[in-house]
Design a protein that fits this description.
Layout (H helix, E strand, L loop, with lengths): L2 H30 L2 H4 L5 H21 L11 H19 L2 H8 L2
């Protein structure tokens, strides 16, 4: 595989994941709306940091646990998807994009 072909394949593979993340992000936005983030104690960024910290602790537990039983409620992939989408929301908050959705729903 040439370097150009490898880069194009990487781009296609990443795009598939981005599309999946977007679909999940939109579904959750419909379910939750913007206020669970916007009205978080300490502000939106703080709320996101707490959620992301919780997910990281969950990942540590899943990865480093000595249990041989598979998790029943959330897989590694679920946690990584949530972290990626929290990062997208954090960028939207920091860039002022999230505010326009929070203000529209008042």
């Amino acid at each position: 595989m040439s370097e150009d072909t490898a880069i194009l394949q990487f781009e296609e593979d990443a795009q598939k994941i981005f599309d999946e993340l977007l679909k999940i992000l939109v579904k959750k936005q419909i379910d939750y709306g913007p206020y669970n983030i916007w009205h978080a104690p300490g502000g939106a960024t703080n709320g996101l940091m707490v959620r992301m910290s919780d997910k990281l602790e969950r990942l540590k537990n899943l990865i480093y646990s000595t249990k041989t039983i598979a998790p029943e409620n959330e897989s590694l992939e679920d946690s990584f998807i949530d972290l990626a989408n929290y990062a997208i929301i954090a960028l939207m908050v920091e860039r002022g994009v999230w505010a326009k959705y929070a203000k529209k729903q008042k």
